[in-house]
């Protein structure tokens, strides 16, 4: 049952774009979705490491340690995802043009999906934690409810606005689902991953945009993407380190990887 809800959430927009729009629009949309999907990698990687550790902490009733683990994992997923998102949005035209100039028409679609994926990264392992704390039926209900909402909004928005409407509908529902799961986990289990420390990557991200834009005045094409991203990432890392990373947090990350 949950798998059907997952299809409504994760695939229905692609199916509906293919049904209602031209093959050109489908190609542009699919490339934008594919590029934005790169942002799912950090969360997927940490989610492979998180469940066994979280399960052990839950079975030993170490709630405070579980809460801290959830906070640290979520923050580091966001730290990694944010700089990836900044690079994708800053160099969206250069990246899309690699597939052909006509694909640059998907720049807004890419931006919208990047924002949706970024909100997803902010949710961290909320889905796993809901399941591990015996709320699997709530998780399935979430998938179905938001999957149906995704279907309805995609129909309305695609007919009216084309593939940009599909991106608005899907990215919005995707973000709202993750916000809902985070609130449910907070309300039901008292697990909330956010603190003022999340401001550090945001500040670093803002400052990393500056050299990336400066490189845009000097280079173009694939060279700009590689060099600009490298300089942006280095700036980001330097600022993150300058703002401070707790030793306990470093030790926890090392123990996981």
From TrEMBL:
Pfam assignment, any one: MatE
Subcellular location field: Cell membrane
InterPro entries noted in UniProt: MATE_fam, Poly_Biosynth_Transport
GO cellular component, one term: plasma membrane
Membrane-protein topology: Multi-pass membrane protein
Bilayer-crossing regions: 20-47, 68-91, 103-125, 191-210, 222-245
Full protein name: Polysaccharide biosynthesis protein
Record organism: Natrialba chahannaoensis JCM 10990
């Amino acid at each position: 049952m949950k798998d059907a809800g997952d299809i409504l959430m994760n695939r229905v927009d692609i199916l509906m774009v293919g049904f209602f729009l031209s093959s050109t629009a489908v190609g542009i949309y699919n490339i934008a979705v594919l590029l934005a999907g790169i942002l799912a990698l950090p969360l997927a990687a940490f989610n492979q490491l998180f469940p066994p550790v979280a399960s052990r902490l839950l079975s030993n009733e170490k709630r405070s340690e579980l809460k801290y683990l959830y906070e640290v994992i979520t923050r580091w997923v966001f730290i990694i995802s944010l700089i990836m998102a900044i690079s994708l949005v800053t160099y969206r035209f250069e990246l899309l043009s690699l597939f052909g100039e006509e694909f640059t028409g998907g720049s807004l679609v890419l931006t919208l999906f990047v924002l949706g994926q970024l909100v997803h990264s902010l949710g961290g392992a909320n889905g796993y934690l809901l399941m591990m704390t015996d709320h699997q039926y709530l998780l399935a209900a979430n998938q179905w409810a938001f999957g149906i909402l995704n279907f309805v909004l995609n129909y309305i928005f695609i007919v009216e606005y084309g593939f940009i409407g599909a991106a608005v509908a899907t990215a919005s529902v995707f973000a709202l689902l993750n916000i809902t799961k985070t609130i449910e986990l907070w309300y039901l289990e008292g697990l909330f991953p956010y603190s003022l420390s999340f401001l550090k990557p945001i500040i670093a991200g803002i400052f990393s945009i500056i050299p990336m834009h400066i490189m845009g005045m000097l280079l173009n094409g694939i060279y700009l993407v590689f060099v600009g991203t490298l300089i942006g990432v280095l700036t980001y890392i330097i600022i993150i380190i300058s703002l401070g990373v707790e030793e306990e947090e470093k030790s926890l990350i090392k123990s996981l990887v």
